[in-house]
Amino acid sequence: MKKLREEFADLMLSVGDINSELVVLVGDISHGILQPFAKKFPDRYYNVGICEPTIVNMSAGLSKVGLIPVVHTIAPFIIERAYEQIKLDFGYQNLPLNLISVGGAYDYTQLGCSHHCYADVSLMCHIENSCVMMPGSAKEFNKLFLDNYKNGCINYFKLTEFPHSIELKDDQIKLGKGIKIADGKDVTILTVGGILQNAIDARELLIKDNISAEIIYFNTVKPFDNEIVVKSTEKTKRLLTLEELSEHDGLHNLALKALSGKMDFPIKQMAIKGFVSGYGTYKEMQDRAGLSINKIVKKVNEICGEK
Amino acid sequence: MINNDLRIKIVEMVKRSGEGHIPSSFSIVDILNFLYGNILKIDSQNPKWDERDYFILSKGHGCGAFYAVLHKYNFLSDKDIMDYSTKDGILGGHPDMKIVPGAEASTGSLGHGFPTSIGIALGLKIKKKSNRVFALLGDGECHEGTIWESAQVARNLNLGNLCAIIDWNGSASQLMPVDDLPAKWKAFGWNVMVIDGHSEVDLKLAFDGIEAKVDGIPTVIIAKTIKGKGVSFIEGHGKWHHKIPDDKEMKLILEELST
């Protein structure tokens, strides 16, 4: 089974050949495996240094002059350490970027929590104009990268070190599309990334308990496929979410949002949806964010009207 | 060299809107006016001209001076200035590059504009272009770690097309002095010049003295400035950093700037 990091190195080489605007910057991670790219395109490969916030920040300058930056290092350093750079230099300025991490969750199993990262996906979802992908296999990463690396968005590709073994068809792999892996009638298991493998293995064991589990798999968290969640849970009426992400956000919350309005009682959310641009008084800013008193009254009326 | 006309414009903007950093703007306005009037290759009718030089105001809270100078050189209209920091305006307490003509980066959080300028300089080098990149930083901003990360990166990548300008107005010395700024930049391998940031003669000598090469050593001009320069009771540090003048103070400020 091909490792996602090997696919990354091969992809950079092949895309570098066809697109002279691709520039790869790393923070001393995958430096060895990227040597074919570095040797072929020495003016488009930079092992910048151990300075992740600056690597991300300077990439905004590359993006600004029309190049396509790919920034790569370990997930906690590229997302959590450099989060303000992602938020301001790319999100606020609306510049495109490709972030590719390895070592998310506890993939660096022997290096301890300093190298773990459970909140990266959630954090990236907060960034305006972001697409957040967790490919669980080399083939998925290949397709998702080629489809999206020059889409003008802030793309986050979280590469697992532990891919699943399911062979997906090309036409199943698409940004924002969930995939039904197995049919079932008793419970829906939603899962994301490489841990799909555990869901499949568990399903086999559940058959012996006379439980038929339907497995819905995602390699994209943003945009999220609400429809597939609704369709499956309408049938099974039971839901389990399985994810190697923080319990405080991620797939579970996405599922709840997907089911908003589909359950026995209305659920609505009022929250900040992106940058609240512009200037003015506090009240004017609240109104711009959609959180003014009048809008709250309107929203409550909507909820009560649904009963 | 005292650009009092620009200082009056700054203080009027701040007074009208009730928002702004007057002393931080007064310390850099002479530098900006010299850059825009004499050094930068720019076209106000085409702010995104491919062949332009890039100027990044890394200390975004000095934007009062930036807006006044962009207005003087026809990037901004009278209405833009009148609408500063209001609901209908495009100019806020920090510049937003998406909507302000001539602003190359949306700064405000310190330590971001300079790394962006490194990327622009590297991108221009990759594209084999001769445009130059100028970034203006505060001395207080030089507390930020990303400044020194970037200083190392720029030197290591030989970004001779890059010039940093430090507004050495002493803000940093109030909390964590960086009195050896020239030695620090020299230790990071940069060409270092120390000048009087309010002297046109010094500014001309410094900018004319840069040997701009796409592949070379980057230059830093450390400009000694006075925070609040131009109005006696605003000069220095303290309450005026983010203070809005009342009517009486406004009258005194205008009197000093008009003499």
- Overall pLDDT metric of chain A: 93
Radius of gyration of chain A, in Å, reads 21 Å
The chain-level structural class of chain A is alpha/beta
The CATH architecture of the largest domain in chain A: 3-Layer(aba) Sandwich
Structural class of chain B: alpha/beta
Regarding quaternary structure, how should these chains be classified? heterodimer
For the largest beta-sheet of chain B, the strand count, sense and barrel status come to: 5 strands, parallel
CATH architecture of chain B: 3-Layer(aba) Sandwich
- The CATH first-level class of the largest domain in chain A comes to Alpha Beta
Percentage of residues in DSSP E strands of chain B? 5-15%
The proportion of strand residues of chain A reads: 15-25%
- Please tell me the total number of domains of chain A: 3
User: Which regions of chain A contain 5 or more consecutive residues with pLDDT less than 50?
Assistant: none
CATH superfamily descriptor of chain B: Thiamin diphosphate (ThDP)-binding fold, Pyr/PP domains
Protein architecture, described:
The complex is a heterodimer of chains A (307) and B (259). With 307 residues, chain A is α/β, with parallel strands linked by helices. Chain A has helices at 4-18, 35-40, 52-64, 75-80, 83-92, 120-126, 138-148, 196-208, 226-236, 251-259, 282-288, 293-306; strands spanning 22-26, 45-47, 68-74, 97-102, 130-133, 154-158, 179-182, 187-192, 213-218, 220-222, 239-242. In chain A, the strands form two sheets. Chain A has a seven-stranded mixed β-sheet, sandwiched between helices. Chain A has a four-stranded mixed β-sheet with strand order 7-9-8-11, sandwiched between helices. Chain B has a single domain, classed as Rossmann fold (3-Layer(aba) Sandwich), CATH 3.40.50.970. In chain B, helix 9 links the parallel strand 4 (191-196) and strand 5 (219-224). In chain B, helix 1 (4-17) packs across helix 4 and helix 3 packs parallel to helix 4. The interface between A and B is medium-sized, with 34 and 35 residues.
